[in-house]
């Protein structure tokens, strides 16, 4: 094989590697931007959920229901975006990212179930079925406590892998 052909092969391989590296950096940048939005939606969902519970305790059923719906919307939006990111960039994610995504998906799914239970609690308490309403309220609280365990798992993953997450503020 001539040295000219070897040079061309070398340049092609070098270009392919360079494109792959730039693509990886670009992927992580896109993931980071999206994760910031997802994080903001989760925080807003948590705030809306807590406000809904407060309003329920004040027996402001309509307002409690509105805040619960807002929490559901924020959690759903976060979950949908997260699943899209995971699918779109699955080849660029390593095992640590996968564990982080798994914990976050579990957290959001449980928070959505908690909102469902909270809505049931609002409905039954508003209609004077106090025992049934309280039962659903207790279930909502238990689910949120479970969701916090997954949130703590995510935080541990970030803490144990600071170099992987240090430039990725959304994580």
Topology:
Elements: H1 3-57, H2 61-88, H3 95-126, H4 130-160, H5 162-165
Task: Name a few traits of the molecule.
single chain; 171 residues
Description:
It contains five helices and no strands. It has helices spanning 3-57, 61-88, 95-126, 130-160, 162-165. Helix 1 (3-57) runs antiparallel to helix 2, helix 1 (3-57) runs parallel beside helix 3 and helix 3 (95-126) packs antiparallel against helix 4 (130-160). The chain starts with a helix and ends in a 6-residue tail after the last helix. The mean pLDDT is 87.
Summarize the structure.
The protein has helices spanning 3-57, 61-88, 95-126, 130-160, 162-165. The chain has 5 helices and no strands. Helix content is 88%, strand content 0%.
Which spans of ≥5 residues are poorly predicted at pLDDT below 50? none
Query: What is the assembly state of the chains in this entry?
Result: single chain
Strand fraction band?
under 5%
- Please estimate the helix content: over 70%
């Amino acid at each position: 094989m001539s040295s000219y052909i070897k040079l061309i092969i070398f340049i092609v391989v070098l270009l392919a590697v360079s494109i792959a590296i730039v693509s990886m950096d670009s992927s992580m940048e896109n993931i980071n931007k999206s994760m910031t939005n997802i994080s903001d939606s989760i925080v807003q969902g948590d705030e809306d959920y807590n406000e809904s519970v407060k309003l329920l305790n004040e027996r402001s059923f309509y307002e409690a229901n509105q805040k619960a719906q807002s929490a559901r919307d924020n959690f759903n939006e976060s979950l949908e975006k997260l699943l899209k990111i995971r699918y779109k960039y699955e080849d660029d994610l390593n095992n640590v990212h996968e564990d982080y995504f798994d914990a976050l998906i579990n957290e959001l799914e449980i928070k959505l179930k908690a909102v469902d239970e909270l809505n049931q609690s609002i409905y039954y308490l508003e209609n004077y079925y106090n025992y049934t309403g309280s039962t659903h309220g207790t279930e909502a609280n238990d689910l949120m406590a479970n969701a916090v365990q997954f949130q703590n798992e995510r935080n541990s993953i970030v803490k144990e892998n600071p170099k992987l997450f240090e430039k990725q503020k959304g994580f």
